[in-house]
From TrEMBL:
Keyword Protease set for record: no
Listed SUPFAM superfamilies: Cytochrome P450
Protein's cellular compartments: Membrane
Native source species: Vitis vinifera
The protein, known as: Abscisic acid 8'-hydroxylase 2
Family the entry assigns: Belongs to the cytochrome P450 family.
Keywords: Heme, Iron, Membrane, Metal-binding, Monooxygenase, Oxidoreductase, Transmembrane, Transmembrane helix
Pfam families assigned to the protein according to its UniProt record, in alphabetical order: p450 (PF00067)
Mode of membrane association: Single-pass membrane protein
Domain of life assignment: Eukaryota
Primary localization class, coarse: membrane
PANTHER family, sorted: ABSCISIC ACID 8'-HYDROXYLASE 2, CYTOCHROME P450 26
Transmembrane feature ranges: 12-40
Length: 488
């Protein structure tokens, strides 16, 4: 019996068993350690087996760029949507793009899987606004900034500015009296003054003209070809950016040197500390002040221009809005006070006119994102690096959500729009923090304009101009007269 265990046969058999065991163990270790890798490979193959979205990539390199620029951008998108559906591919300026225009798919890009789609801008634009500005970031730096910017534009923060905004309106409306003015240019002056007020907490009398002039150059260059040669708008804009940066850094240093950090967005940015008690640097603050003022004024001015156009073209609506505003005016005069935040909450019809203007004008027709990895999306494969564009305007003009979409009809907002169908201010982590301020500017202006003046569009043609936002032709020249004189 003893020998059995030590016989040469049984020893080699045991050795064989041991080897087999080791082999199995080794295979298992290798198999399990490679499992995540195999899984990723499998996922990759799965992605690759999914089709790319339908659509045409056009010519090599130029793609469909020429078609986009020669056709009206709205019909470019809607024609393709009709042909290919709510998710389709194209190629613009050498970039493969996926256009997305259903509420559910847009929600995926902007909200539920936003981490897979980062905001993307040409590097020339990033340099011009400032690389540390909120728009160009994600993750902890973005959320830290977002909290700060949001804090200074929340209703609770801006309700105290109503009287200062009203003073701006009361100062510049009489300058329109009895003459022809360019609505867009006048609205830009108004929204610029409000943007400076919100950024610094007060007016900047001394530096204002210089800053305005620099912003004008910045805007021209922002929308031009990025050719950095002497005399080009791009070169002039980069110079303007440098001077703006110097001006704002002087203002920041002055505030840092004083005992109070002061109001406005600047006050909030100066007072901010992270969990390690670190402050934001001067360049971070300057880039964000430059960026927020930039984002705040042209957008709001374009929507205000459309508001005047739509009210001019819909006389019954103008009279109904005027009646609503007359009611507010009567209670203000009785109490012998100025307009307040609470008054602006008692303007339901005016509010719906503003909503319908935001929908119809859709000044931001779409926004840009980029896939940060290969993504499986709505049954399609989107390769890493492809641009993904949620098409806000297509949703706003979809008859399923807004029947007779071409009609200007504020009553459609008596019922709240379906989720993710009304996106003038975007959605998700990068949604606009200035939406309440923009609407407040519209309420205050409409209150005084409708109760005291009437306006007539001069020229009368109905076209659209892209500067870069869509606005009425020639910036809507109007002739303004005092309302009483007009009514007589
Ligand atoms: C009617 C006027 C306005 C419209 C239609 C508008 C629209 C938008 C939209 C659609 C976005 C999101 C872009 C994206 O997701 O890629 C956005 C972002 C932004 N807007 Fe506005 N905006 C307006 C006014 C303002 C104002 C008054 C401010 C000033 C406070 C402002 C500051 C910003 C900032 C800082 C962002 C970037 C937010 C981020 O990246 O987290 N906007 N805006």
């Amino acid at each position: 019996m003893h020998y059995f265990f030590f016989s040469p046969l049984s020893a080699s058999f045991l050795f064989f068993l041991l080897l087999l065991l080791l082999l199995l163990l080794g295979t298992a270790v290798v198999f399990f350690s490679l499992l995540p890798f195999r899984f990723l490979q499998w996922r990759h193959h799965q992605h690759k087996r999914l089709p790319l979205p339908p659509g045409s990539m056009g010519w090599p390199y130029i793609g469909e760029t020429l078609k986009l620029y020669t056709e009206n951008p709205n019909s470019f998108f809607s024609n393709r949507q009709k042909r290919h559906g709510d998710v389709f591919k194209t190629s613009i300026l050498g970039c493969p793009c996926v256009m997305v225009s259903s509420p559910e798919a847009i929600k995926v890009v902007l909200v539920t899987r936003a981490h897979l789609f980062k905001p993307t801008y040409p590097s020339s634009k990033e340099r011009m606004i400032g690389p540390e500005a909120i728009f160009f970031h994600e993750g902890p730096y973005h959320s830290r900034l977002k909290k700060l910017v949001q804090a200074s534009f929340l209703p609770s923060a801006i309700r105290g500015s109503v009287s200062a905004i009203e003073q701006i309106v009361l100062k510049f409306l009489p300058t329109w009296n009895n003459g022809v003015v360019n609505t867009l240019q006048e609205m830009k002056k108004y929204t610029f003054d409000v943007a400076i007020l919100s950024a610094f907490g007060h007016k900047l009398d001394l530096e204002m003209e210089g800053i305005k002039h620099l912003y004008r150059s910045l805007e021209k260059g922002y929308n031009s070809m990025p050719i950095n040669l002497p005399g080009t708008p791009f070169r002039r804009a980069m110079k303007a950016r440098q001077l703006l940066n110097e001006t704002f850094r002087r203002l920041i240093a002055k505030r840092r040197g004083s005992s109070k950090q002061g109001g406005g967005l600047l006050g909030i940015l100066l007072g901010a500390k992270d969990q390690h008690l670190n402050h934001l640097s001067d360049s971070q603050i300057a880039d964000n002040i430059i960026g927020v003022i930039f984002a705040a004024h042209d957008t709001t001015a374009s929507v205000l221009t459309w508001l005047l156009k739509y009210l001019h073209d819909n006389r019954d609506l103008l009279e109904a809005v005027t009646r609503e505003q007359e009611g507010i005016k009567a209670s203000i005069s009785e109490a012998n006070r100025g307009l307040t935040w609470d008054d602006t909450r008692r303007m339901p019809l005016t509010g719906r006119v503003i909503q319908e203007t935001l929908r119809t004008a859709s000044i931001l027709s779409f926004t840009f994102r980029e896939a940060v990895e290969d993504v499986e999306f709505e049954g399609y494969y989107i390769p890493k690096g492809w641009k993904v564009l949620p098409l806000f305007r297509s949703i706003h003009y979809c008859a399923d959500f807004f029947p007779q979409p071409e009609k200007f009809d504020p009553s459609r907002f008596e019922v709240p729009p379906k989720p993710n169908t009304f996106l003038p201010f975007g959605n998700g982590v990068h949604a606009c923090p200035g939406s309440e301020l923009a609407k407040l500017e519209m309420f205050v202006l409409l209150h005084h304009l409708t109760t005291s003046y009437r306006w007539k569009v001069v020229g009368g043609e109905d076209g659209i101009q892209y500067v870069p936002f869509p606005v009425p032709q020639r910036g809507l020249p109007i002739e303004v007269t005092p309302r009483k004189a007009n009514a007589e």
